[in-house]
Amino acid sequence: MAGRIQGIALQSYLFFGSANRLYQHVKTLLAGQPDCRFLIFDFRLVTGIDSSATHSFGQIQQAVAANGARLVLAHLTAELTRAFRHAGLITPDVVVAPDLDRGLEFCEQSLIEAHRSEADDARSLLAWLESTLGSPEHAEKLSTYCHRLQVSAGDVIASQGDKAASMHLVLEGRIGIFVETEDAHAIRVRSLGRHTTIGEMGLITGQPRSATIRAETESVLYEISRDAYLRIKRDDPALSQALLEYVVAVMSERLSFANRAVGVLQR
Predict the structure, then answer these.
(1) What backbone phi and psi angles, to 5 degrees, belong to 172?
(2) Is the pTM for the entire model greater than 0.85?
(3) Within the chain, which residues score under 70 in pLDDT?
(4) What angle is formed at CA 137 by the lines to CA 254 and CA 121, rounded to 5 degrees?
């Protein structure tokens, strides 16, 4: 857990030079700790900050977010809080803690909850795969080829025209399928909920994506890459056959849905 939480103690007055060095240090730290999820700054010994330094903190905030982590600011004085708010640096993604202990407690509790959630998701995935593939053994094996993804509303999972490199199992949430027209408009053609799959045709054929896949709500997906699919075909024919039968069943259901939709439109 320690590797996922990194802390930096600051002191004295923060100006452009010191803040810029701090930004460079943060970039190096994140590059060396890609699994970092929280970066805590302790301002207990900071006496003040100038406007150029807040700009560097804006860069730090962007770097932290790009790494999939969150910024935690501890021991902010009223003056520092005003400066950060004025610079637009206190956002819903930034945690403001009254002291370092509270900040660490928040981070540790968040990681515990995330770990518990991932464990629950893994159990739920196994149960779904077992009912889908008809075999606990197949379910266990296929789960080892899956990579968990947690996405937010609005996140693009795959874009129309991209080479298809994976399929996704939607464990929780809702995913929209959008087709982009020639005049650059996006039309939602379907919305898929939990225990559905997306991208299964592209996984098998390797053809470009025919639609854009975007999360409509916060969602949890499990990705099966094309490389993983090819390994399954090579190393486990029985599992490959079970997965193919499931994909055929899904495609049959999708075709039936499309036919019903066309029938309604022709009435």
Answers:
(1) -145, 150
(2) no
(3) 1-3, 114-117, 254-267
(4) 65
Burial of residue 202 (number of CB atoms within 10 Å: 0-12, 13-18, 19+): buried
Instruction: Work out how many domains the chain is built from and give that number.
Output: 2
Which residues does residue 212 pair with via DSSP β-bridges, in sequence order? 178
Instruction: Provide the terminal-to-terminal Cα distance of the chain, rounded to the nearest Å.
Output: 60
Picking from 190, 197, 68, 175, the residue whose alpha carbon sits closest to that of residue 125 is 197
Q: How far apart are CA 124 and CA 143, in angstroms?
A: 11
CA 119 to chain centroid: 16
Q: Residues 191, 178: contact at Cβ < 8 Å? A: no
Q: pLDDT tens across 132-153, in order?
A: 898 999 999 999 999 989 888 8
Identity of residue 208: P
Q: Do 148 and 243 lie in a common domain? A: yes
Residue 139 belongs to what domain range?
A: 115-262
Residues 215 and 178: beta-carbon distance below 8 Å: no
Going by the DSSP 8-state scheme, the letter that residue 4 receives in this structure is G
**In one letter, which amino acid is 240?**
S
Residue 140 maps to which CATH number? 2.60.120.10
